[in-house]
Amino acid sequence: MPSTLAECAVAVLSTSDARAKTSLSRAVTAAFRASQAAGAPMPVGHAAPPMRPARPARPELLDPRDVPRRKPGSPEGRIALLHAIAHIELNAVDLHWDIIARFSDTPMPAGFAADWVKAADEESKHFNLMCDCLEAMGSHYGALPAHAGMWRAAEDTAEDLMGRLAVVPMVLEARGLDVTPGMIEVFRKAKDQRAVDALEVIYAEEVAHVAYGSKWFHFLCGRHDLDPKDVFHDLVQRYFHGPLKPPFNDEKRAEAGLPPDFYWPLAVSG
Ligand SMILES: [Fe+2]
Ligand SMILES: [Fe+2]
């Protein structure tokens, strides 16, 4: 294993097999935690991440308009939903390692990388949980087509750390908080306890990822003497394509340090 976090991040990003990617991601986290416990934390270092992460040959990536829709109430519909979530989780693994390597030239407190290592480890667990659920239903990740263009937010904000924080944790991951309770209900109705339990883990842990985004976004606003709400609105309008979609989970968003005056104006003005 490389000796710096940024190089480890690039190793995860460059791994194409999905289960191999998540197991390397979890192994790096374990090594990082062991180095912290030993009083000699692995340094962040510097490394240039690939523009796009390596991914498996399957799933086939399609324009969202071309991904076939399946009835949500049917077993096929639930497999399609789990497959879509697995795809999001795998993308999230890469996003969290990417932020560590991509912005390794920006001096940040040690807690910044440590937060994203923890988030990346949790995304790796989430992906594995979704794959386990798919396999229990006789399917697997790669069996269905998945959305192309998930990496777009990363490409758009590759030069802008505040833009990355605004769009990825504070918009995309916050959206996960809005929609996950409805997904849990789908699997509760179908009496699929394995999927309910997995989604409950995801729901509980995603709050912290949004909170890390908000924390470091506010930190950078303080560093540059900027008004957080105004800058957030500017950056989301610059990098996120389209309005934010209500209904919002105001309670969980507040828990994650995202007040309503950050997101509501972007829902109505588009
Ligand atoms: Fe996740
Ligand atoms: Fe997340």
Automatic annotation (TrEMBL):
Residues 39-74 are annotated as: Disordered. Residues 57-69 have a biased composition (Basic and acidic residues). CDD domains: Ferritin_like. It comes from the Bacteria. The lineage of its organism: Bacteria, Pseudomonadati, Pseudomonadota, Alphaproteobacteria, Rhodobacterales. InterPro entries: DUF455, Ferritin-like_SF, UCP012318. Coiled coil: none annotated. Pfam families: DUF455 (PF04305). This is Ferritin-like domain-containing protein. It comes from Meridianimarinicoccus aquatilis.
